[in-house]
Amino acid sequence: MLELQDHHAEHEAVIATMNTDSSYRALWLGVIELALEDAAPLLRRANVTPKSRAIEMRTARTWLLSDGRDFRSVCTLAGLDPSQVRRRAMDVIAHFDASDQRRSRPKREPVPRRVRAIDELFTHEGETRPVHEWLDRVGRKPSTFMNRRRLGWTITDAIFRERPAPIRFKGFNGRKPKLYTHDGLTLTLDQWATETGVKLRTIRLRLKKGWAFENAISPKNHSGGRRERRA
Fold first, then answer.
1. What is the secondary structure of 175-188 as a DSSP string?
2. Is 23 left (phi over 0), alpha (psi -120 to 50) or beta?
3. How confident is the model at residue 4 (pLDDT cuts 50, 70, 90)?
4. To pair with 200 at 20 to 30 A between CA atoms, which of 10, 58, 166, 228?
5. Which secondary-structure segment (H or E) carries 201?
6. Taking CA 135 as the corner, what is the angle to CA 158 and CA 125, rounded to the nearest 5 degrees?
7. Rg (the chain; Cα; Å)
8. How much is the pTM?
């Protein structure tokens, strides 16, 4: 028992001597810093396997958080308060674990890209091609194909069906002329002028003056308007 007390006294004397030497203090500070790096390794060393890294981390954390005699001695030699070092270690470890958990989340698998309608394969008369190649062959725009499909057209019609040529009326720049009905006959003003022999300009002028249509197309003069001047 006396020998154990002497050994403890000798150990305390060595610690007291080390406390007066700044080089010893820097050495023990390095021990604590290394333990913190092992407990929360931000950088992965290339020559350390994951298994060894896990063992080093578990050992360092046990040493820092267990408040053992060796830990207290190292903190004393480094000139630090053991309780403050332990609280600092707990903060570092907690921050590392939270960051490591975010980094280790499984990545979402990429959602397979949906095949566009114009990229789908279509068979016509025994030949299979993507729809966009069929469209190129017949000179059809993809937007036209998509609009037709939205309207309920079949793929065949949307690709190959020709649009009917618009009906154009001669002399009206493609616009549909106004039709006039009289005595069960419906014609344009131009056609009424041909039918009645009254000049088209005269019919329009009479209508503009408010004449009734049957009087406007009549070859005879009526009291509802002025007499036409003869050329």
1. PPPPEEEETTEEEE
2. alpha
3. very low
4. 166
5. helix 200-208
6. 75
7. 50
8. 0.36
